[in-house]
Amino acid sequence: MAGLILVVEDEPDLLATLDYNLEREGYHTRLAASGREALDFAALEPMPELILLDLMLPDLSGTEVCRRLKNDPKTRDIPVIMVTARGHEIDRVVGFEVGADDYVVKPYSVRELLLRIRAVLRRTQDAEVERQGAATRVGMLRIDVTAHRAWVNEDEVTLTALEFKLLQVLLRRRGRVQSREQLLNDVWGITADVTTRTVDTHVKRLRQKLGDAGSYVETLRGVGYRFTDTPLGAV
User: Which pTM value belongs to this model?
Assistant: First the structure.
């Protein structure tokens, strides 16, 4: 399940290498060469699923960038993997203290880094599923992830497996815009032979089935879709 990764690295050659290998694995990338760029890019929609953060940057330190990300309600839930040539125990401790989810020391193999990325994303997604399972009601909508059932104002809504998965992905990431390409990857699978028009069709059908709760799924023109429990009205 590939998503958007923000890569923060001030060495151009290494940045290009990471970009190439992540894209080859099916991830989308956003690239930053400084701490300030990282903070700006992390808050852009669609927001990254994970941040790969170098510790040594030309303006702000990686630890300061991580601290600011974790103190911002908009970005605090984005997992961060710190990448650095400094492998002393105190550096690792500081990294984890400011909120890093993992810590990789240079030089590293790209294969190891990709495995770390997958592991952190899997842990994050599992935690989101558990949280969602504990809080299945959002406004007039209630879902049971385990049973694959959904209700609107206590009336059960019949959804196909694909529609339920689409709803679950949007709900799990509520408040965050999901591009059509991300939804193709995460709902249909990255190798699925479908187009972004298919996403629009399924979202329209999902809204129709949800009735009054369909307005929770917002359209951001030219960007994608977002689930919100305080809708201003679906487009």
Answer: 0.60
